[in-house]
Amino acid sequence: MDLLSPNAPTPLQEISDKLIEEAGIKLFIKRDDLIHPTVSGNKWRKLKYSILKAKSENETTILTFGGAYSNHLYATAAAGNALGFQTIGIVRGEELAEKESATLKFCREKDMQLHFVSRQEYKLRHSEEYVRQLAEQFDFPFIIPEGGTSDLALKGVAEMVEEVRGQLEFDPDYFAVAAGTGGTAAGIRAANADVLAFSALKGGGFLENEIDELLTNYENKGKLKLVTDYHFGGYAKWNAELMYFIESFKGNYGIQLEQVYTGKMFFGLFELIRNGYFAKGSVIVAVHTGGLQGLLIRS
Ligand SMILES: *Cc1c(COP(=O)(O)O)cnc(C)c1O
Predict the structure, then answer these.
(1) Fewer CB atoms < 10 Å away: N or C end of the chain?
(2) Judging by DSSP bridges, how do beta strands 195-199 and 283-287 pair with one another?
């Protein structure tokens, strides 16, 4: 698999309808869902420089972290398998060892070694001491943080912003993106572009600090507006209204979304448009960050 020669630049697709016209705005979708068949969207952008580094350091094993629906675990398992790395996934929730999600099954098929830990233990994933212990336990692998989110990830995401600048030939007023760890939102700001980030988690207010922290080494950074109202009950939670929205979106624009991230982001974005949040003449680039492997209902 030619992992490092992706389908990029990914298309920038304008969509239009009555709502968008009446609001007097322009809406483009950055189709990062098309960047690669298994290493999708922002996970490709975020993994690129970590994987290049692991390669250049002749590492043989990559260890990373995620939950039962983690697109990042999925992407790392696929990329590792294609590029000849062994992979280890530290998985949140011991009970999952019994009933594995489709995502985890795929990881195992790609020869990822799954190591299940309690939710309590998983909370330590950012602790230096804990990570040092894991390193020792697994014979000093190349460690990528949860969600692929690191300094190197920001650099990869910033390239997506540069692609958009090349395609539009000007800067949009906003990049809209779904946020889990906030790494993608941080990468957009790292490219000095303004972000509207929609938290896919309940109580996503903490993301503001996390994103700021990722950007401590950057002088010129774009502004962040964090939207926390469209979590639909929490991470990986959803309801019929959201699924209906995803169906209609597909019907109207021919673009598939999923219920964990992109569905919530577009739902929130359309509500803001409807409520007159955007000044007339605004140009929005909404990033389709992929993740369609986790889609619940395929239509
Ligand atoms: C992981 C993921 C996100 C969240 O990205 P962060 O950088 O962790 O905020 C958004 N959308 C999709 C489809 C994802 O898989």
Answers:
(1) C
(2) unpaired
Q: How many CB atoms lie within 10 A of CB 245?
A: 20
| Cβ atoms 81, 110 nearer than 8 A | yes
What is the rounded average pLDDT of the residues 201-225?
96
44 forms bridges with which residues in the sheet? Answer: none
Among candidates 74, 121, 65, which has minimal Cα distance to 101? Answer: 74
Q: Residue 276: is its pLDDT beyond 70?
A: yes
Q: What is the CA(261)–ligand 1 centre distance, in A?
A: 7
Ligand 1 centre and the CA of 21: distance in Å?
29
What separation in Å is there between the alpha carbon of 22 and the centre of ligand 1?
30
CB 81 less than 6 A from any atom of ligand 1:
no
> Mutate which of 31, 155, 181, 262 to test ligand 1's pocket (most atoms within 8 Å of Cβ)?
181
| Contact status, residue 173 vs residue 282, Cβ threshold 8 Å | yes
110-120 pLDDT, tens digit per residue, is 999 999 999 99
Average pLDDT over residues 239-247: 97
